[in-house]
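Model it.
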Amino acid sequence: MFKKILKSYDYSLIAAMVMLSLFGLIMIYSASMVSAVQYYNLGSSEYYYKKQIINLFVAGFVFIMAAIFPYKALLSKKILVPMVGLSLLGLLGIFVLGHTAGNAQSWYHFGSSSLQPSEFVKLAVIVYLAAAYAKKQSYINQFNKGAAPPIVYLILVCGLVAVQPDFGTAAIIFLIGGTIILCSGMNLRNLLRLAVMGLAASIPVLLLLGGKIFTQKKIDRFLVFFHSPFADESGSGYQMSNSLIAIGSGGLKGLGLGQGVQKLGYLTDGHTDFIMAVIAEELGVFGVGFVILCLSYIVLRGIYIGLRCKDPFGSLLAIGISGMIGIQSFINIGGVSGVIPLTGVPLPFVSYGGSSLVQLAISMGILVNVSMFVRFEKVYKNKDEEVVADMSPQPKNGFLQNRRG
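Modeled.
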């Protein structure tokens, strides 16, 4: 049995995640070796590189734990209720004990380490909505009883994240929730009613807290998007203009690993939100293509697992996790390249950050576990049923017919 379980794991998904994480480790060192000393005054060019190695070890451990933990156990109220409670408590506690960085009060600091609860809230939203709508399949089109209750948690979480203010993460969480709701099986009428309900709930929040959510810095990012960042190259368009210069300088092959210019004091967040710009400058189209190919494989493979899974909970989990990775990747790459307004979110598996990497590792562990159950039930369970059928006594007529054949 143990060997059958091991054979059922999706090792292609694991390989894509490992390759992206190791590639990200290399690029984090290249992107931060100058800024760690000159800009952040950390005293060592290897500071972020060494911390990311520790993050990778932690991520590897939690991935293994999540991969062997049966995903169906997440349906238990003993897990769901504390998960929802801790997610709300973590977001509320930020306003009392949180640390402000980058104009957002989004982190808890523990010595030299930090924790961003909104990263783990993404996973909590996926698990909760998947569990809620999986349990409500028999009456999901009854709006008051089936469709509406779970969205209250989604709106509350998005509001708490937005007022930190972290509009980019709030948008990602909202889109993740929307993806699960769209795939939950409810009819179009209820989907439209939920959209109206969400819009109605957001209006008073925007009226009361709009000034805190849409700070001048965020407004400037939208203005930079609609105008050329080079119009205010030393002001609001500074990061965006240097990002575009880095992307344009790389060309097909890039300048070479470690040979980038923009990281030398120009692109100060090259190891976090703008790591794709550093990859484009140093490794060109080939480096960017490698990252997009691996991320696309994980997303498409996750959707495929969700479509194959017969269990509604497992299916929504797989779609929610793959949707989260796809949405966040698009927002990061789109923002860095100027396709959409810049929001400042990390690139999955590649950017520096412990909270993001650990949360993604847990999510991938759950996805791999869903995939394992799908494959195990399809291959080995069906085979065992065929063996039992072959060993069972057959009617004489059937036996004679087989002999004659």
